Amino acid sequence: MTLSLLTALLPIALLIVLGAWLKRRQFLTDTFWAQAERLAYYVLLPSLFFHGLATANLDGVPFQSMVSVLVFSTVVVSLMLLGAKSLITMDDAAFTSVFQGGIRFNNYVGVSAAAGLFGVQGIALAAVANAAIVPSVNILCVMVFAKYGSAGRMPFSKVLKQLALNPLILACFAGGLIQVSGWGLPVGIEPMLKALGQASLPLGLLCVGAALEFGSIRQWFRPVGYSSLTKFIIMPLVTLLACHLFELEGKAAVAALLFQALPTASSSYIMARQLGGDAPLMAGIIACQTMLAGLALPAVILVMAQWV
Predict the structure, then answer these.
(1) Could you give the CA distance from residue 74 to residue 234 in angstroms, rounded to a whole number?
(2) Which residue segment(s) compose the domain that 139 sits in?
(3) What's the DSSP call for residue 277?
(4) Where does the sequence pass through the membrane (predicted)?
C-alpha cells in the first residue's frame, strides 16, 4: 500500500520541480504562465471534472453512504476552519490558501492510489469520491473567496453569480447530470474531453512549480502547518467518525479515508490566481503537502483503516 501511494506522489513532485526549474531558467516567458493558468481554469480542469463525473462506473458501490460521509466531513471541517480563522491570525487572502489546503484533494493521487489498493473496484470508489467531494469543495471555496479574496467582500447577489458561472462548478453539475441521466457522451466528444482533462494535471503542476517563491519559505511554516494539520489529521479523524455515523465500512470506508487525507490539488493554485487568493502561498502549500504526504498518507491509512 505504501509503495502504491509513493508511486502516485512521485510524478507530482517531479512536475512541480520541473516547473520551478523552467521558470528559474526563463525557458518560457513570464506571459506564458498567466495564459497557461487561464487555459487550465476555464478549459482543462472543467474538462477533467466533467469527464470524470459523466463516465464514472458506480456499479456495486455504496453510493449514498459514501457520499454522505464525504460531504459531511468536508462541510464540518470547513466550518471548523472558518471558526478558527481568528486564531490563525493571518490576512484574508492567505486564509483562502489555508482553507483550500485543508479541504481540497488531489484527484490524480487519489485515483492512482485507489486503483493500486483495490484494482477495478478502486476506480469505482474513486469515482464516487470525486462525485461527492469535487462539487462540494468548489462551492465552499468560491464562497470563501467571495468573502476573503483580495477583491473584497462580495454582496450576496454577486456570490450567487460567482457560483452560477464558476467553470469548475458548472462542469461538476453537468457531468453529474450526464451520469444520472444515463445519456452518455457522444462518440468523438468523450476522448476529446478525456485528453483535455489529462492535460490539466501536468500543466497545473508546472504552473505550481513556476509560482514557487523560495525567498518566502520562512513565511510558509505557519500556514503550511495549519493546512497540513487539517488535511492529514483533522479531516481523516472527522471522516472516521462520519464512517461510524453513516455505517460505512470495508473498502468503501478506507477509500473515503484515503481521499480525505490526500494532499491538496494543483487546481487550488489556479483558483487562487483567478479568484484573488494568495497564489504564491498556495503554491508553497501544494508543494509542501505533496512532500509531506509521502509519510503522512500511508500513516493515516495504516492507523485509521483498522477502525473502520
Answers:
(1) 11
(2) 2-307
(3) S
(4) 63-84, 105-126, 132-151, 163-183, 195-217, 229-247, 284-307
